[in-house]
Specification:
By secondary structure, the protein is an alpha/beta fold. It is 25% helix and 20% strand. The chain is built from 14 helices and 18 strands. α1 packs across α13 and α7 runs parallel beside α10. The chain starts with 13 loop residues before the first strand and ends in a 20-residue tail after the last helix.
Length: 475
């Protein structure tokens, strides 16, 4: 392995770490800005988006307009509609009359964009970020990964600004981590569902844990692959009901820039309370999926009897173990009844969601310069910038790591293009992507909204010193 780091001739204006949908959106919107020098690094060999969950028929919970760029720039070449045009599929899509596209199609669209952008560098694992006061740049050290996964070479690039988009990772409840980590024990996270589905569908008894959209889709998929009367599926979850996602028109306004700005202006305790209280805005089940599950269960009663499927909310798995006959014993507690029982099953699928990947490992070299809140989380301003010590003149932006400061819209694909445009407007000190002053009919507070020129990164005439000198000046 080569150990000589590569030093570019000039620092880049922006280096992105991680290439998921959000940094892919930023790269696509940055591409027409030819004066910007950008690069994005990802340790995976190519783009993929939740490959284990691309179940046939599963759709996005947002309309196709929530692609990578449209809600900031519908004339951008990387829109979903342009993707269809390049595939000669515009007329079929037109006649299909689909507002919500399948996940597999969204993944294919994103791969089309990723294959087209020269600023993306897959197979590059970022190892460390440091601030160099002599050059007033961030040093980004990376390892180039060979196709077989081996470390191939070390490298370094310099950047005036960083954007972190390292995404989330599967969450496995503590009670099930030992079994999930044991080779040969069929306790898997939903992220790996499709890879294991052939074996899972033949298991004698299956348990699905988790009552969000993913749990519902997996339960429905398993149900459709099991014979009537011999389904032998348990579906359990901590939530008090298999509840529908809030999808009313005004409810959806919680996923607008207006609400994001309102939420950011609240106090830290209020924000923390709201994040947990608003779970049904983004962790419920699509009403069509609930209907499809009920229809499938009802169909299995037409000739008498009930399907051998048990659906129980309000259940906590407090311990689990492997039995002597290689089955899995779950120790369950009903949260409301305060009763306990055991459930023996042959396979467990954990639809228990994702958690933000910790930023601390990659930011360890900057730790003395980071400002944190009372819970130890980074302070992030309304322009998605981490609060840093004034000695650091560069900026670190974050994507999908600001739930505690920006609310439930943080992981929502519908706000991807708006957030990317906000970052680019702030970065350049201009307005390559004009953003709307108002996006919701709801007024979320009694105070008038702040000056929009600050919210999309443009200083007002009253505060011309709001921005540092042009960030793209390469002197």
């Amino acid at each position: 392995m080569s150990t000589a780091p590569h030093h570019p001739e000039a620092p880049r204006d922006l280096v992105g770490i991680g290439i998921g949908p959000f940094n892919l959106s930023l790269a696509a919107l940055a591409q027409p800005l030819t004066h910007l020098h950008t690069a994005f690094y990802e340790q995976r060999p190519a783009f993929d988006w939740h490959p284990g969950l691309l179940i046939d028929g599963a759709t996005l919970q947002v309309p196709f307009l929530a692609d990578l760029v449209t809600l900031a720039d519908p004339t951008n070449p990387w829109t979903f509609l342009n993707y269809l045009r390049t595939r000669d599929r515009l007329f079929p899509f037109y006649f299909a009359e689909r507002f919500h596209i399948q996940r597999a199609e969204y993944d294919a669209y994103c791969r089309w964009v990723s294959d087209s952008l020269p600023t993306l560098h897959f197979g590059h694992q970022v190892d460390a970020i440091r601030w160099n006061p002599d050059t007033a740049t961030f040093e980004v050290d990376y390892t180039r990964i060979a196709p077989d996964g081996a470390a191939e070479a070390l490298g370094r690039t310099h950047a005036r600004n960083i954007v972190l988009g390292i995404g989330t990772e599967p969450h496995i409840p503590a009670a099930l981590r030992p079994l999930a980590a044991t080779h040969g024990v069929p306790v898997i996270h939903a992220a790996d569902y499709l890879r294991h589905r052939p074996a899972l569908t033949t298991a004698s008894h299956i348990t699905v844990v988790g009552a969000g959209q993913t749990g519902a889709e997996i339960f429905l998929d398993l149900l459709r692959h099991r014979p009537a009367g011999h389904e032998r599926i348990h579906w359990i979850a901590r939530t008090e009901a298999f509840a529908p996602m809030e999808y009313s028109k005004l409810g959806l306004e919680h996923f607008t820039p207006d609400y994001t700005r309102f939420f950011h202006g609240l106090t830290e305790p209020v924000r923390d309370r709201l994040v947990s209280a608003q779970w049904q805005l983004h962790k419920g089940i699509d009403a069509d999926t609930i209907a499809a599950i009920h229809d499938e269960l009802y169909r299995r009663t037409l000739h008498g009897g009930w399907p051998d499927a048990t659906l129980t909310p309000g259940i906590h798995v407090h311990t689990a173990r492997r039995t002597t006959d290689s089955r899995i014993e779950l120790h369950l507690e009903h949260i409301q009844q305060h009763t306990r029982t055991t459930l023996t099953t042959d396979a467990v699928i954990l639809a228990t969601g994702y958690r933000q990947r910790p930023l601390d490992p990659i930011l360890s070299g900057l730790e003395p310069h980071l400002a944190r809140d009372n819970s130890g989380r980074p302070h992030i301003d309304h322009h998605f910038r981490m609060a840093l010590h004034p000695a650091i003149t560069g900026t670190i932006y974050v994507q999908n790591a600001e739930l505690h400061t920006h609310g439930v819209g943080t992981p929502d694909l519908g706000l991807a293009a708006w957030r990317s445009a906000t970052i680019l407007n702030t970065l350049t000190g201009t307005r390559p992507y004009p953003l709307p002053e108002r996006t919701a009919f709801t007024s979320f507070g009694l105070q008038p909204p702040p000056d929009i020129r600050h919210l999309d990164g443009i200083p007002s005439s009253r505060q011309p010193a709001d921005l540092t000198p042009p960030l793209i000046d390469r002197r």
